[in-house]
Amino acid sequence: MELFEYTELQSRLSAIADFDDLTDPEALEALVAQLRPYLRNVIGSTIGKGGEGKTTLATNFAYMLAEEQAVRAEQGKSAKPILYMEIDANGDGRTDLGLDATIFNDHGKALRDTITNDGNLKVVKGVRPYLDATISGRFCADIAGRINKLADTHALAAYLLLALLLAQISHLYRWIVLDFSPGDKAIQRAGLAAATHLVSPVHNTDNAALRGLATVTRLIRQNRRLNPEVELTAIAFLGFRKVKGEPTTELTNVRAKIEKLLSDAGMDPGLILDEYVRDARSIATLCRNHGKPAREFALAATGKLRDEKGELVPRPRDENGRYADAEMSVNLADDYSSVARGVITRVRQRNVQLREKEMQGAS
User: Cys-Cys crosslink for 157: which of 19, 35, 272, 287, Cβ 3.0 to 4.6 Å?
Assistant: First the structure.
């Protein structure tokens, strides 16, 4: 694990310097069109309300994608790392990956300055094999206000700052997993301008969860000028019971509600993944407390996880000193693996469609 600093990034502020309320719409359209081909490996995890599990989904997804790249490398195939970037004052992703007390923790100050003031991007490389991450935290709470202030001068172009940043480093990563907060529309706009594919988790069955999903679909439509390609690519259920491997009526009922919501919005109800993550709150809590994604935690719980020196990692225990349930840990990890496969399959299908559309436009 090492701290790496990207020092040769082109100025994002210079790219938007000439934009204001009077700029021709065609100029913004041209900048957006220039960016889009570089951002098709950016997958955003977001939902219009908190508490739905977007960060848990994003960190586990990024870990699974990194595992895939590690396997490719072992097979002698080409492989690139995954970048996990969280833009959230809570910094839960940092906790999920066990980065609270590592070589670098500035609580998101560098990331804030990178996005809003042309600072150098600092990345912790090798968080896991083929997984890099930025550090978030309380300073990320300033990002929305700073972007809004820039928007007073540079209008909509200010919300392209994150896209302008990621477009410069996207070629270095197989996938960029962008975890952005539902708490402020400025952050939502910047995230929606940067991502091409969105995955939204649903953890609760109340109407607030449905409203959160409706917020995402509405914001996508409202931000077409900043990103004509972004779409909700998958909806994943987290924390629902399984009985003999099958969903209960709780899940089937909320699924029916979301299918209607999507249909009413003119969207495909097939966005909802058949794969979902079962209710395993005790194990999920232990995963976060131990700073391990579900698959890694399952390896530890079954006595198979080795550290960098090749030595077996002690099996994790709960707050009462008991070993974590190995079977439950493996089941949870398998669920996240299934969800990750479902998401990435749809993302790849969309990218094929986008490339075909691009080729048709060029011919």
Answer: 19
pLDDT digits (tens, 9 = 90+) for 61-98: 999 999 999 999 999 999 999 999 999 888 788 889 98
Instruction: Name residue, tokens 């600092």.
Output: 122
Q: What is the Cα–Cα distance from 253 to 240, expressed in whole angstroms?
A: 12
Q: Are 7 and 120 in contact (CB under 8 A)?
A: yes
Short-list 289, 296, 300, 307, CA closest to 333:
296
DSSP alpha helix (H) spans, the chain: 12-16, 25-35, 54-74, 92-96, 109-117, 143-154, 161-169, 185-194, 207-222, 249-264, 281-290, 294-301, 326-362
Please name the residues in contact with 121: beta carbons below 8 A apart, sequence gap of 6 or more. 5, 6, 9, 110, 111, 114, 134, 165, 169
Closest C-alpha among 215, 128, 114 to residue 165? 114
List all residues 6 or more positions away from 338 whose beta carbon is below 8 Å from its beta carbon.
275
Q: How far apart are alpha carbons 172 and 55 in whole angstroms? A: 23
Per DSSP, the residues of 131-152 read EEE---SGGGGGHHHHHHHHHH
pLDDT tens digits for 264-315?
A: 878 888 889 999 898 888 999 999 999 999 999 999 999 999 888 889 999 9
